[in-house]
Amino acid sequence: MNYELVLEIESLLNKIFIFSEEDKNGILNRLKNEPEADKISKIKKILEETIEYQGRLIERKISENPSLLEKLEDKKKELIREALNKYQAMLKEDDRSKINTILTRIDSL
Amino acid sequence: MTTEDKQALEQVVERYRPTIGEKVSVPEAKARAVVFEIPQRSWVENLRPAELQSLNAELINFLGQEIRDQEIRNEAEKLLAEISEILEGKEQEDFSEFYNRVNRMAESARVIDSINETRTLDAKEQAQVVRRLRERDWGKLLGENTEGIPNLAEGDQVINVLSPTDEKLQVKFLNDLIGMSANDNLIEKRRDFTVEYFKDGLKKFGISEEDAKKMNLEQNYKMGFFKISKDQLAPEKVNDLMNEVCERVNQAMKEKLRPVIKQKIEEWGNKPDSNEKSKKLKALKILIENYLGENGKGYKINFGISAVEGEGYENTVSAVSQAMEAARTASILGEAYGEKFSDKRLEKVFGEIAAIRQKLINEKVEDKNGQIFELFPDGGGLNFKVLRDVRKGKFEATDTDQEKLDNLKKYVKCINVIDAVKPFVHEEIQSHGKEAVGRRFGGFEETKSAEAEIIATFEKGGSGESANDEDKEAWVKAVKEVKEMLSRDAKDRRFTSREKFHKEASQIKNCAYVFFDKIDVGPNQLANAEHAILDAMAIKDKSKRSKAIEKIKMTAGDETTEEMRMFREHTVQAYKEVFGKEEADFILGDISGGDEINLALDLDRFPKEEVDLFIQKVQSKENVRAVNLLVNSNERNSDSEAGSDNRLKEHCMAFKKGEDGGDLAKAVLEKVEELAFALRLSESDLKKKMKELRLGSMVVVNNGEDFKIRLDGVSKLFSKDEAFAFIGAILKGGKEKS
């Protein structure tokens, strides 16, 4: 597998919103078995163009419908809040276990 | 974190704070890393990549759901299809097919170049030359034998056999579905079966194979022509004969097509799922179930018969045109395989056109993008965009408008009944006759009998040791004529033949390709025919109407012929003005189908600025929206003799790349239409905006990188998105002002 190229493709696909999840997974799965780096590079170019197109598209869509930007901001805040909550929960557990590890280590010194 | 935990942590931090030069064990270092990392970072930085990605992915998905409308879905589908094609290697397959074709053409040009007065051709080369000579006109339709007797004369019945007109069996559709090579084989089979069953059928009437062979005038990829004189077989028997031929061809072709389709179903079945796959499988299964099964529609070809009623080319051309019209009438009215031409039947088809129009006159149709089209704006002809897309099979109506679409398809098929673009116009045939027919192939002065002599000489083979003086003399003359004839284009001798073009262009080391594409030639031709038919059908007086219909029959395609001539004329004129009179005597150009002219210019001889000027000059003469072109400078990497194969490959790559540029130019023009529609711009507003957009001077350029759009007087080169933004700004600006 052309590991690095496929990783690049994965990261590009993650930025694309005009394809459905199913289509994106389809492309990625097929690329994992693709031996020709040349083909992957061609696809990479198309995806880069797609992202460029998306940039223009979103600008246009927001100018046509300004409430879209608010919706996006709200969604972003909501997602960040969720992630923050998850992190705090995780941090509490992690901290305790890490401190325990350290204290055990200190005790064993 | 509890207060207790924090205190414990602080103690640890204090105790384990590193000092310079201190050496610690690995577990200790790890413990320190944990201690010193976590409390010092903000929450966002501490999000692990996986969580960051999932946050982004969720936001991206949300965005997609919010704004993914039909326009975006269409764009996405195109991009996904492009990706699929790359993954499936279709690009490669297409290229190989194209390269093989070009290679065959270049090879043929090499054979012509290698002929000389003493060299004898081998059998393969000889067949190749004779075939090319024959392909130069409407086969033997307007030809003569070596004694100057026309191949088609008074009393002859001309039979036209037309390949299937059903959209699922048409050449273009099958090319896309099963590939060009597989379809080329099928076309060849269809021709062979038709000729074989024709000869077979004639045996029953006591006509020898030798005589039957002479009755076969021409077989091309789309149609074929036979002739039978009234003395040889009575008209009603010709009808029976041809019905039987078509039925046998139908059965035989079903047997040939079935395994090809089944194989394709298997091939696609093994590929990973994609939109492309489901589309192809659906189309292939429709063919198997609805066409090739026991009760399927079959592989239906059609025939038409018409008699030559008098002497002279006008009568011959009339009979040939009528035979073609009868075959199309049969395919539209769909009752039998074919029929003898009759004005009544043609009028019936014209009547269908008027009836469908009447039925839909106040209707609108909605496409899958949600655009609504008035079908007959201002009570005139069919909406041009609808006409164009229905003709190409590209119009996708909503489910509720399917019935309207079926009617529209029939409407367009009916108009197409008089589709025959000839290399001459009716007036020329009337006034000059023989001279016009001789001249139509680009001004060769030979008579048709001289041409027949040349072919006969080549059929005999070269000038061997044993040839007598007369044969030798005929050979020397024929060689000279053939080299000249086959190096130049059959329609317009000022351009090279397609074969010569590919051979020579591939040898240019630093080459500028110029591809001119006159758009909407086909739809314009249909629209012209539509208007002529509607005008004729509106005439109440029966005899006046018949006269009008007669005129339509005779002049069908004349406007397109004139338009194509003018297009070539403007190109040659600009060439003369910029590169010099002598250069314009033999232009390295490929006239493709009439509406495209592809040129190769040696940049070592013609500076780039002159090439730009040349393009500008052609654009200034041709209708602004009618020319769509690009320039592609292509440096050859391979050198010397050994690299000639590679050079041909590079030439083909440049050619294929040219198609991408053409697509970009088309996309830009489509964008204008789409936005003009969305903004409800009036025709006059749009015309004004078009001037402002300078699209009449649009050149898609490529200098080794991506294609960019160049507009006259604008120094910036636009990418596709930038061009779209530019168009949007100008068109929207127009709306606000108005």
CATH topology name of the largest domain in chain B: Alpha-Beta Plaits
The largest sheet of chain B, given as strand count, sense and whether it forms a barrel, is: 6 strands, mixed
Give the mean pLDDT of chain A: 77
The tally of structural domains of chain B comes to 3
Q: What would the average pLDDT of chain B be, to the nearest integer? A: 80
The count of DSSP E runs of length 2 or more, i.e. the number of strands of chain B, is 13
Secondary structural class of chain A:
mainly alpha
Helix content of chain B: 55-70%
The termini of chain A sit apart by: 46 Å
| Total count of helical runs of at least 4 residues of chain A | 4
Record field, number of beta strands of chain A: 0
Q: Would you kindly provide a written description of the structure presented here, covering whatever features stand out?
A:
The complex is a heterodimer of chains A (109) and B (738). Chain A is an all-alpha fold and 109 residues long. Chain A has two domains: 1-64, no CATH class; 66-109. Chain A is 86% helix and 0% strand. Chain A has four helices and no strands. In chain A, helix 1 (3-14) runs antiparallel to helix 2 (21-32) and helix 1 runs parallel beside helix 3. The longest helix of chain A has 42 residues, at 67-108. Chain A is flat. In chain A, 16% of the residues are buried. With 738 residues, chain B is of the alpha+beta class. Chain B has three domains: 3-49, no CATH class; 137-418, 2-Layer Sandwich (Alpha-Beta Plaits); 498-521 and 546-737, Reverse transcriptase/Diguanylate cyclase domain (Alpha-Beta Plaits), CATH 3.30.70. Helix content of chain B is 60%, strand content 9%. Chain B is built from 28 helices and 13 strands. In chain B, the strands form three sheets. Chain B has a six-stranded mixed beta sheet, with helices on both faces. The chains are: A mainly alpha (109), B alpha+beta (738).
